[in-house]
Design a protein that fits this description.
The protein has 1311 residues and is mostly helical. Helix content is 67%, strand content 2%.
């Protein structure tokens, strides 16, 4: 700003301009009648150059009108008054006044609080339309920008006035006014509320505009008008195509002739508009468009104009990208033509053909199946299409790595550079088409990998950076397809079908590294970024595969870290890649390279750019963890490096003027360094700990400091932390009172680590300060915090028993209250057991054994009356576990406790709750009490099995099995005899046998295996399904005792047994499958096909049990069944169909009730289909899969609930095939959402219908997340119907706002 200029709103003004504006203001003031004019006080403005004056108005007297103010007003009258003042200024002859007033109006319109009356709306619209023809361009631009926010503030009639005026201006003779009108129409259309919101404004405006646009396009008088109209039409169709259904035919007939326009720009815009139209038009119009294009496309030997052919192929590509899912039926005619056109010597045409093929592969992969070989051949041919360059010269130069060779190479590239060379676009289109092929056909992965991977690796030498980036991207897509499945399926499983691809890839790694060796030092930062991305993906797919190539990788990383000529992004990418490499490759691979690697990383730690420094600190942290892991001998001597690393970290740790991210990373990095190499720090250890203590006091850095302190305290180096303990513990105690949950959790973890490592060195006074905060944390309100608090108490009790005595009463009171919670997680129960054992295990005990036992059981023993247990069943199990834990901690008391429990169980005066607790406790205590009390237990337990209380019977059955498991010779023959002799108690005795089989050691069961086997198969034909279920579980547990002998016998029972026996056998096999690796898995895999043959069984119950078994296998161990899916899937799909022969009518008095015996089997089949999506998606034919889902959408209530969930998951996992049939999927959803319950129905019917509607609406929301789905005319119509209904709108909005309703977020809970 020069002397004599004054900064004001809107720019810098000179003194002369200020004076002129002041004069203009005076003229306006004179022209405007005002009451009693006031003198203006002129004061010199100190500090302003040029003797500038400030104009001050004196204080207003009472009754005088308020001067104009720019503050927002809440009422309509004040808004109108304010806007009127701005409108007056817009008529000024001074362009500055007009500009400032328009700018102020823009600011007002953007406020939500503005309210305009009808007259003000009309005046604002009229003024803005007038300003569109202003002489000043800046005013015009501002006026156009005002139209956007104005659309949402005025009534529909005013919007139509704006649109009419803009359309009229489009036909103006003035070029500038036409341009402004075009921009204005685009602005208005972009601000119109979507039709999905229920507003009809967009529809009415678009209909008004469409007719004028079509006439402007068809006239062909002025090309500029035509181009602008096509642009606007494209925008309108992309956002609001569906509401224009009545205009689609006229638009199509208007746009098709433009494909033969002599002007390239017109043809290009028409192609874009037709693409958007194809996505939203009806099926008949789409067929007309497709037939038109196919008829106009010449045959392979028919001569045609190059320009017309280009346009038609580009139009096919545009339609494919926007509505490719609708082109499936026409591909048999289109794809062969495109393949023929590629043989013509026209690179631009080849690019368009390959782009169209890419769109087809992405949008309709199944229909492109027959053409995959030919498209692959085309892509491989044109991936290396570079007629103007000889790559052999580069291969010869690979031996030379000097600067001279690089400069000569640069000259060669410049020599071959040609602005007219279009071949690079063909190569890029081929690479993108290959990426689409790899991404859309995972089922062809092995074949595609063998044919495409070598070609892609060979093209890493590509000379054009744009093409090279797409080649890298295609190879990355291939790697991601090969990557083993994650989620439910863990790495412990056998190799998936991608296993063979992994082996092939392992052999290709050296070729990949060789191809990337020169690229890692390329001058282009973009190329190096692509190399790092590809190598990071490769390291993730094959961890450890890059170790032998570390010299090449380290050289490339150091090259990029030292490159300061490019942007900082490349250094961040190099650091990120190095961090990932440290996590996937063995530490020994880095040892020789550390002297080269460490200096540039240290330099990045000191970099002034915070993002680089933060990333470098993360790398340094990973370096320390990888090269000097805890708990392992140090292979590499850290002495030469530790001082340099420590100093670099401490410089960052001491600095206070750093970005928060750098501060946190520095603290974490120091924590890892001290935890891993603290014994090497020497004299710098104490200052480092003091720095951590200082960061602990800072509110901004306290959380990362607590985590760092945890690392130091938990270190196996047993560092001496006594100098800081007295100050650290009170600070940590204060954190336990904070509302920040993450801080409380981290603090409790740190306290536990300190108690484990420094327990006896903790100052007692500081420990008491911490313990005083703990009772409030042992609460049901936050179980995770409670668990960590109890863990700390268990750790600190043996180290500081005297301190615990003082707070044990308060802590125990809260702990006992927590144990009575029915929501108690298993982890908290285990922590409580450990703490209770420590309380009685100290010498002297903090709490006496009998006292603690009385406290634990008091809620049960003090319970009044005998109306059954008033506490939740889970509470009895929790208390029984705690009683057993106390007995295990004091073995000398165990026998007495067991005797006391037996007496309580026998006593006729004991309440039901006391007996339940006694039996459950005996089940746990019996394992540590010895054989003494067990002799008299038989009679007690058998007597209890006849108790009138079901809770007592179940508890006694459980106790019989658990106690018997520890004394098999005495109990097991007795139990088997009782099962034979007591048919009325058979179910309870079988449950006891199940517990015994699960708890007993396998070797102890082998002598009794044959007797148990015979007994169990005698009960397979029982009439009670519950009994057969227990028998099946017992058989499964028994097979695990001797799998190689018993599993073949189990399989033979499928051919010899009756239906109930076959069903029980299949259910027993289900219990052999667990989510963890088991020795039986390889053997089970050899028999799985024979068990799955039961899907052909004529009995419904057997098929249902087989489906449940298949579901368990898919869910827990997919590798068992993947190779059999080709055989199993047809049988599975057969079970999803409704069988009329299984539907019967049952008379219930005067009513007839329809019963579908096949419903349960269909439900089981659809549940299996859901599980297949999670673990075997690559092996599914999604088109066939979706056909059965579509049928299920019209089935019974239970089936529809399942298929709605399936559909939502499919929309998330594989949107392309869902999009192809979205029109057919919408109709059943619409029927469900709009269905009405019959008048007079019971409450349950209304509730079922509401839940069904909600589930269907979740599926609709999931479908709408597919970008192109909203363009479907049927979907758009349904969306409008939803928003026209208050009930459906509320349901739709609630699902969108509810995070739990996000489709596919969680696996379905399967029965």
């Amino acid at each position: 700003m020069t002397e004599g200029e004054i900064p004001i709103h809107g720019g810098v003004q000179t003194q002369a301009e200020l004076s002129r504006r002041a004069a203009t203001r005076a003229q306006h003031a004179a022209a405007t009648p005002r009451p009693a004019a006031r003198p203006v006080v002129r004061l010199p403005a100190p500090g302003l150059p040029g003797g500038a004056l400030l104009f001050l108005s004196p204080r207003r007297e009472a009754g005088a009108p308020a001067p104009f103010r720019s503050q927002p007003r809440s009422t309509m009258s004040t808004s109108a008054f304010h806007v009127a003042g701005l409108l007056e200024k817009m008529t000024s002859s001074d362009k500055d006044f007009r500009f400032m007033a328009t700018s102020d109006l823009m600011a007002e319109l953007q406020k939500d609080s503005i309210q305009l009356d009808e007259d003000s709306e009309r005046k604002v619209v009229k003024m803005l339309l007038r300003l569109l023809d202003d002489k000043n361009g800046e005013v015009q631009n501002l006026a156009v920008r005002c139209l956007g926010p104005l659309v949402g503030k005025v009534k529909e009639c005013q919007v139509e006035t704006i649109v009419d005026a803009l359309c009229a201006n489009m036909r103006s003779d003035k070029e500038q006014l036409r341009d402004i009108a075009g921009i204005g129409l685009k602005t208005v259309l972009s601000e119109l509320p979507p039709t999905a919101t229920g507003s009809g404004l967009a529809t009415s405006v678009c209909r008004k505009v469409t007719g004028q646009l079509t006439s402007a396009i068809a006239q062909q008088e002025d090309v500029a008008v035509q181009l602008e109209a096509l642009d606007i039409l494209s925008d309108m169709l992309s956002r609001l195509g569906a509401p224009l259904g009545s205009f689609h035919a006229s638009l199509l007939h208007c746009l098709l002739p433009q494909l033969s326009s002599p002007r390239l720009a017109v043809r290009k815009r028409a192609v874009v508009a037709l693409g958007h139209l194809a996505a939203t038009c009806s099926a008949d119009l789409f067929a007309e468009l497709a037939n038109h294009l196919l008829e106009r496309l010449p045959g392979p030997r028919t001569p045609a104009g190059a320009a017309g052919l280009h346009t038609l192929v580009q139009c096919v590509g545009s339609v494919g990208r926007q509505a490719g899912h609708r082109l499936g039926p026409h591909l048999d005619r289109l794809v062969p033509l495109l393949e023929e056109f590629c043989s013509l010597e026209d690179d631009e045409l080849r690019e368009s053909c390959l782009q169209a093929c890419e769109a087809f592969l992405r949008k309709c992969p199944k229909e492109m199946g027959p053409y995959v070989p030919s498209v692959t051949r085309l892509c491989l041919q044109y991936l290396k299409h570079d007629p103007n360059y000889n790559y052999n010269s580069d291969e010869d130069e690979e031996q030379m790595e000097t600067e001279d060779s690089e400069s000569s190479e640069q000259e060669t590239e410049e020599e071959y550079s040609d602005d007219d060379d279009m071949s690079w676009k063909v190569r890029r289109a081929a690479a993108k088409c290959l990426a689409a092929l790899l991404g859309s056909r995972p089922d062809l992965l092995p074949d595609l990998h063998r044919s495409l991977a070598p070609a892609l690796v060979h093209r890493f030498c590509e000379r054009e950076d744009n093409v090279k980036a797409d080649v890298f991207a295609a190879y990355i897509v291939l790697l991601r397809q090969i990557r083993p499945l994650q989620g439910w399926v863990k790495a412990v499983e056998e190799p998936t079908p991608a296993g063979s691809s992994l082996q092939v890839l392992q052999g290709q790694v050296p070729l990949v590294i060789k191809a990337l060796q020169r690229q890692l030092k390329d001058r282009s930062a973009r190329v190096r970024q692509g190399c790092f991305s590809l190598l990071a993906e490769l390291a993730g797919v094959l961890p450890g595969s890059l170790a032998e190539h570390m010299p090449v990788l380290v050289s490339g990383i150091v090259f990029s870290l030292a490159d300061r000529s490019s942007s900082s992004t490349i250094r961040m990418d190099a650091l990120t890649f190095l961090q990932g490499l440290l996590g996937t490759e063995p530490a020994e691979a880095f040892h020789p390279h550390l002297p080269i690697l460490l200096p540039p990383v240290m330099a990045c730690v000191a970099d002034p750019f915070y993002k680089i420094a933060a990333e470098a600190l993360l790398v340094l942290q990973q370096l320390v963890c990888t090269l000097w892991p805890l708990g392992k001998p140090r292979v590499l001597d850290p002495t030469p490096y530790v001082a340099e690393m420590s100093e670099a970290m401490l410089v960052r740790l001491r600095a206070t003027d750093l970005d928060q991210e750098v501060k946190e990373r520095a603290i974490s990095c120091v924590g890892h360094l001290v935890g891993h190499l603290g014994d090497q720090l020497g004299d710098t250890l104490h200052p480092t700990l003091l720095l951590l203590l200082d960061r602990l006091r800072n509110e901004i850095t306290r959380l990362p400091a607590v985590k760092a302190l945890t690392l130091v305290a938990a270190s196996p180096l047993q560092l001496d932390l006594r100098p800081i303990l007295a100050e650290v513990l009170p600070i940590l105690a204060s954190f336990l009172r904070k509302n920040q949950r993450a801080l409380r959790l981290a603090t409790l973890t740190a306290l536990d680590a300190l108690a484990q490592g420094q327990g006896r060195d903790l100052p007692p006074s500081a420990v008491r300060t911490v313990l005083a905060e703990l009772p409030a944390l042992v609460s049901e309100s936050d179980m995770h915090v409670a668990q960590l608090a109890i863990d700390f108490l268990a750790t600190v009790t043996p180290a500081q028993p005297a301190c615990l005595v003082e707070v044990s009463g308060a802590v125990l009171a809260e702990l006992l209250r927590l144990l009575r919670s029915p929501l108690l997680p298993a982890s908290v129960l285990v922590a409580a057991e450990g703490f209770l054992q420590e309380l009685v295990g100290t010498r002297p005990p903090c709490v006496a054994y009998n006292e603690l036992l009385s406290l634990l059981t008091a809620p049960i023993y003090e319970q009044a009356g005998d109306g059954g247990p008033s506490l939740h069943k889970q509470v009895f199990h929790s208390l029984a576990r705690c009683v057993a834990a106390l007995s295990a901690a004091c073995p000398q008391e165990a026998a007495g406790t067991a005797n006391r429990l037996v007496r309580d169980a026998r006593s006729p005066h004991s309440s039901t709750g006391v007996k339940v607790l006694a039996f459950l406790s005996l089940a746990e205590v019996g394992q540590v009490a010895g054989p003494g009390p067990q002799r008299e237990l038989k009679a007690v337990l058998l007597e209890a099995l006849g108790s009138p209380s079901e809770d007592v019977r179940v508890a006694a059955s459980y106790a019989l099995g658990r106690v018997g498991a520890r004394n098999l010779p005495d109990f097991l023959p007795f139990l088997l005899a009782q099962i034979e002799a007591e048919p009325r108690r058979q179910y309870l005795l079988l449950q006891a046998l199940r517990e015994a089989l699960g708890a007993a050691p396998p070797d102890g069961l082998k002598p009794y295996a044959e007797d148990i086997w015979v007994l169990l198969f005698q009960h397979c034909e029982g009439t009670e399904e519950g009994t057969r279920g227990v028998v099946a579980e017992c058989i499964g547990k028994l097979v695990l005792v001797n799998p190689s002998f018993l599993l073949p016998r189990l399989q033979k029972q499928l051919t010899t047994g009756q239906p109930h026996t076959r069903s029980t056998v299949i259910t027993a096999v289900k219990f052999l499958i667990s989510d963890q690796p088991h020795p039986i898995d390889p053997l089970l895999k050899t028999f799985i096909a024979e068990f799955m043959e039961s899907l052909r069984d004529p009995d419904l119950s057997v098929r249902r049990a087989t489906l449940a078994f298949f579901n368990s296998a898919v869910h827990n161990k997919p590798s068992l069944i993947r190779d059999l899916l080709d055989t199993i899937l047809p049988l599975l799909y057969q079970e999803t169909k409704v069988r009329r022969d299984l539907i019967r009518e049952v008379e219930m008095g005067p009513f007839k009730h329809t019963v579908d015996d096949g419903l349960d089997v269909r439900k089981a089949a659809f549940e299996c289909m859901y599980s297949l999506l999670e673990s075997c998606l690559g092996q599914l034919d999604l088109s066939e899969f979706l056909s059965h889902v579509e049928d299920g959408l019209k089935d019974h209530y239970d089936i529809r609930m399942l298929t709605f969930i399936l559909l939502a998951r499919l929309a998330t996992l594989c949107p392309a095939p869902v999009l192809q049939r979205v029109d057919r999927l919408i109709e059943p959803l619409r029927a469900t959402c709009t269905a009405k319950v019959k008048a007079g129905s019971v409450k349950q019917e209304f509730e079922k219908q509401d839940e069904l509607k909600r589930s269907a609406m979740r599926a609709v929301v999931a479908l709408l997340t597919i970008p192109e789905a909203g363009r479907s005319p049927i979907m758009a119509d349904f969306a409008a119907q939803i928003h026209s209904s208050t009930e459906l709108t509320a349901l739709f909005d609630s699902i969108q706002k509810d995070p739990a309703s996000v489709p596919g977020a969680e696996p379905m809970e399967l029965s």
